[in-house]
Amino acid sequence: MSKLTNVWVFSDNLVRYAELLAGARQWGEQVNVLVQGAEAVPAIKPLGADVLYVLAEQSALQRVENYAETLVSLIEKPAAQHSPVTLILMSATKCGKALAARLGVLLDAAVVNDVTSLSVNDEGTCAEHRMYGGLAFGREKIITPIAIVTLAPGAVEPIAANPSHDCAVYQANYVTPRQEILCKERRSKSLSSVDLSKAKRVVGIGRGLVSQADLSMVQELATVIGAEVGCSRPIAEGEHWMERERYIGVSGVLLKSDLYLTLGISGQIQHMVGGNGAKTIVAINKDKNAPIFKYADYGLVGDIYKVVPALIEQLSR
Question: Which domain of life is it from (predicted)?
């Protein structure tokens, strides 16, 4: 597989850099990384960048989109041709997508969001991404000299840090945009520290759970098998029983776990887009016709209120 000449990497979330750098090394020859603030350098440098640019930190009320003009000043525009030689790779967060859109206008470049895989060869550069709410995957051929891609969580296996790796570090001057976007106020909300895309084992709960209080039963099972707890969309966004960060599905988390144990989840395609990446899927549902059994490696038709306590008792011995 051939590679792109230059890859520029940026994320508003430090945790995502390991995945982005893995993709950058796979798809590009020269890897340039941009980070917010000098304090991020020790964590990012071991991940294998060729050059590291430190962006001046903005005030708490500034928006990430305001970095667009700064990035444009650093990125050398390649000569026009029918295949990109420069890739701008960012995390598929809300801020990342907003910045990607602004860069697309300033650089006259193609933008593809929520990319799950990228191919670079003699025929061109193609990005595969989810579409129609996760019911299908689209494949786009990028023909602009610069390609801007936001990478979906879990799409690439994170690169391992190499403490001995060193690279040049430069300070990037902040270029003030003509129209800055300012945040008037920030209100804190409770966030989960869990990252299900990195969990090795996940227990997922769906509409089969009758009461929020019964989450303690699910958590007990997860603790016994050393797993994190996730959920289907109705549990997080309908009932609000769990944090949004634990929602597995179309616009949620894509699992890469060794095990995904589903409890009372019907298995609609919107959910399985997020869960189907698990190596082994075990489904428990009282409806023998539930779609989840088409995806499961192992299935058990039964009431989770009877099966889960039995599993806890057996696995706790």
Answer: Bacteria
